[in-house]
Amino acid sequence: MKRSFSGIQPTGDIHIGNYLGAIKTWAEMLDEYDCFFCIVDLHAMTVPYEPSAMAQRTLDAVAVNMACGLDPARCTIFVQSQVQEHAELCWILDTVTPMGSLARMTQFKQKSEQIGGDVKVGLFNYPVLMTADIALYKGEVIPVGDDQVQHLELAREIIRKFNNTFGPVFPECQPLLSKAPRGMGLDGVNKMSKSLGNHIGVTEPPESVRQKLATAVTDPARVKRTDPGEPTKCNLYHLHTYFSSPDEITWVEEGCRSAGIGCLDCKKVLAENMIAVLTPIRERYEQLQADPDVVRKVVAEGADRARSIAADVMAEVKAAAGLYSG
Ligand code: TRP
Predict the structure, then answer these.
(1) Tens of pLDDT along 284-314?
(2) Which of the chain's ends, N or C, has fewer CB atoms near its CB within 10 Å?
(3) Is 111 noted as a catalytic residue in this protein?
(4) 11 confidence band (pLDDT: 50, 70, 90)
(5) Measured between alpha carbons, how far is residue 136 from residues 133, 303, 316, 320 in Å?
(6) Structural domains for the chain
């Protein structure tokens, strides 16, 4: 089995955009690849954060991802800072990484602009740590969202540079883009994002799902119930295509175009279908929260497996680089 590696930011606030765009795809890969999922707490340190909340954020991220279908019996879930080789390999890759390539990264440019003057080296170096994550497990297939494609291109460049300088230690890695593009938020204007408050969380209770959908923006052409609409212009239609049955989707398409159904009818069906998908996720999440030892055990076992591979690869890296081994 080819090895797949992905990094997950430590947050339990995961919305249906994250779920459809990423986690659902990951859960479907478990039998096809040797999957590693790493909660990237070292990456999360590149922006200001509350130290007293970080450990809990990390465990919440594990719990939500498990609840969404990352079955620890069929993959390795672990915390980045528990495997020291990530930082160690990052340093070695730093020695072959051109500054100019890092300076060109869109995410770095955007974030450093937002910050203003006091940009830290960690933010600059972020993509090298990502490369170390992947290389440490000889990851070949990297499921990411489209916002990470540029980082992946750079990872490929860094890995090539290492191999050319020290010998062929690492395989090439390939991005695996999710089929589901990240959907629009409930405002119908921006991509779904927690910081914009236009989202539905995967662990949100039914009442809240109904309420949020009831006030969500639909096709602007449908001012009155009798106005015909165009489903492809409605951000909720997009959600129907994930949560509803083929018959219901046809019903929405025809009803919307002929004004045979109102937006409210359409939203009600969507709400119930969404609730049916989210309810088992929320229930699993609540179970895991009630028994945090289960989550702790998963990441402890994950760290053991990750460490044993990381140690071997690191030894290979040091030997290739000609470092003294005693
Ligand atoms: N930077 C990625 C993100 O923000 C997370 C990440 C860290 C990652 N290391 C990785 C993704 C390695 C893929 C592979 O989404």
Answers:
(1) 999 999 999 999 999 999 999 999 999 999 9
(2) C
(3) yes
(4) confident
(5) 6, 13, 10, 14
(6) 3-183+292-321 (3.40.50.620), 206-285 (1.10.240.10)
Residue among 208, 219, 136, 140 nearest 172 (CA): 140
Selecting among 120, 161, 191, 318, the annotated active-site residue is: 191
Output the CA 77–ligand 1 centroid distance in Å.
14
Q: What is the pTM of this model?
A: 0.93
SS3 283: helix
Residues with CB under 6 A from ligand 1: 5-7, 9, 40, 43, 130, 133-134, 142, 144, 148
242 Rama class: left (phi>0) / alpha (psi -120 to 50) / beta: alpha
Q: State the Cα–Cα distance between residues 59 and 81, nearest whole angstrom.
A: 13
CB within 8 A of 245, min separation 6: which ones? 273
The DSSP string of 6-47 is EEE-S-S--BHHHIIIIIHHHHTTTTTSEEEEEE-HHHHTTS
Distance 278 CA to ligand 1 centre (A): 25
Q: Please report how many Cα atoms fall inside a 13 Å half-sphere around the Cα of residue 259, on the Cβ side.
A: 8
Residue nearest to atom 7 of ligand 1 (CA): 7
> Residue for token digits 């390939």?
174
Helix (H, G, I), strand (E, B) or coil at 128: helix
2 is catalytic: no
Tokens of 159: 């890995």
Angle at CA 262, nearest 5°, toward 257 and 266? 90
